[in-house]
Amino acid sequence: MKLSWRAVLLAPVWAFAAGVCAQTPSGTFFLVARPGMPDPNFRETVVLATQGERAQVTGVIINRPTDRSLAELLPSERFKSFTDPIFFGGPVDLQGLFAVFRADKLPGEALTMLPGLYLALHPNTIDVLLSSPPAKIRFFAGYSGWAPGQLRGELDRGDWLVVDADADTVFIKDTSRLWRDMVRRASGVRVDAAPPVLR
C-alpha cells in the first residue's frame, strides 16, 4: 500500500458515503461474514457498519490490520507517533485514509456510529484528527459500502451474521481471533434478525 500525504488528504470519497456523513444513523451493528463467504474482500471479516437515512450502508472492516503504519508510510515529525498499523477498511477508495475514533466533541464532519464513536470519511476531518488525535483512534485504508437494498440481498442469501455493535470491540489490539469469536457470539442469530432498518 503506497500513500502520499497529498493522496491521503485529497482522496475522493465514494458519493453515497459522503451523503451519509454527518447524519445520525438509523442503526449500527457488526456484520460478521459467514464461514465460506465467497467474496474475498470480506472473507472472515467483521465490519462495523451503519445505515443512514437514505438506506445506504457504510462501514469499515475492523479485523484486517496491514503491516504498515502512518509513521512508516509518511516519515516525518508529524506522523512519528502513529505507529499502530493501518487497517484494511474495505474495497472502496483504497487510496483514501479514514478513521474510527472516540470523542466527547465531534471535531469536524463525521458519521456517528455509536454514542461518542465516529467514522471520519472527510479529508478535512482526518487532517484535524492527525493534528490533534483523540486517545482512541484507528486509521483505515479504504472502507466498505452498500447501495440501498444491496446488503439486504446479501443477508437474504446468508452471507452475513448480524451482531450488536459496541465501541470496545472496535479497538481490540489483537484481532486475530475476532472473527472466530464473533461467529460464536452470533451462532444463535438468524438472518431474519437483522436490524429493522434493513428490512
Description:
- By secondary structure, this protein is an alpha+beta fold.
- 23% of the residues lie in helices and 31% in strands.
- It has seven helices and ten strands.
- Strands 1, 2, 3, 4, 5, 6, 7, 8, 9 and 10 form a ten-stranded mixed sheet that branches.
- Strand 2 (46-51) and strand 3 (57-61) form a beta hairpin.
- The longest helix has 9 residues, at 123-131.
- The chain is globular, with a radius of gyration of 16 Å.
- It starts with a helix and ends in a 14-residue tail after the last helix.
- The model is unreliable at 1-26 (pLDDT under 50).
* Main sheet characteristics: 10 strands, mixed
- The number of helical runs is 7
Give the percentage of residues in beta strands.
25-35%
Radius of gyration: 16 Å
Distance between the termini: 37 Å
Q: What is the helix fraction of residues, given as a range?
A: 10-25%
- Global geometry: globular
**Structure class:** alpha+beta
Key features?
7 helices; ten-stranded mixed β-sheet; disordered N terminus; 10 strands; 31% strand; alpha+beta; 199 residues; 23% helix
Task: Give the SSE map.
Elements: H1 5-10, H2 15-20, E1 27-33, E2 46-51, E3 57-61, E4 65-69, H3 70-73, E5 85-88, E6 92-102, E7 111-114, E8 117-120, H4 123-131, E9 137-146, H5 150-157, E10 160-164, H6 167-170, H7 178-185
Parallel strand pairs: 5-9
Antiparallel strand pairs: 1-2, 1-10, 2-3, 3-9, 4-5, 6-8, 6-9, 7-8
